[in-house]
UniProtKB/TrEMBL annotation:
Organism, as annotated: Desulforhopalus singaporensis
First-to-last residue of the parent protein present: 6 to 169 of 449
Annotated protein name in UniProt: GTPase Der
Gene designation per UniProt: der
Family: Belongs to the TRAFAC class TrmE-Era-EngA-EngB-Septin-like GTPase superfamily. EngA (Der) GTPase family.
Coiled-coil boundaries: none
Superkingdom as given in the UniProt entry: Bacteria
Residues annotated to bind GTP 1: 9-16, 56-60, 119-122
Function description: GTPase that plays an essential role in the late steps of ribosome biogenesis.
Subunit-structure text: Associates with the 50S ribosomal subunit.
Amino acid sequence: KLPIVALVGRPNVGKSTLFNRITKSRKALVDPTPGVTRDRHYDRVTWENKSFVLVDTGGIDDNPEDLLVHHIKEQALAAIEEADIVLFLLDGKQGVTPADWEVVELLRRTEKPVFHIVNKVDSPENELELVSQFYELGIDKLWPLSAEHNYGFKSFMDGLCETM
Ligand code: GDP
Ligand code: MG
């Protein structure tokens, strides 16, 4: 059975962009037809010699903030239950939000591997500045990444596959 890797985080942090980047990198190798499964929320991925199922948990984009926090916590709980590895995305352009605190606390309770990704770090110039906003969350390791522009992508994927 393939490991399940779930993308979790607030709307607009870049979950679907990262989903597309990870699944496209796979398709570039094995599928000559681009864009065939664009709208799917799960896909099988092979990176180096590791295979897994990637799940994009996104969906609701315009809830009031209180419901939103509730929804994201539900999403994170479901991911902890069902996934083998959790990818929690933070928005480097936006910084820490109250919802981030709540989900981080919740994710501390699981023994499963959790990757805390600081997305929208588009180049090395502002990397330290963007990442250091999140030190207050007390996470051992933050993964700077640009889902849109590829910065940090290979190191992250290698790190992810090393846990499998
Ligand atoms: P989701 O709601 O978490 O699935 O977020 P989306 O993947 O739909 O992205 C939300 C917005 O953030 C879109 O406008 C993306 O273009 C933008 N975005 C996603 N990843 C990046 C990134 O790495 N850098 C920048 N600058 N913008 C990004
Ligand atoms: Mg999305």
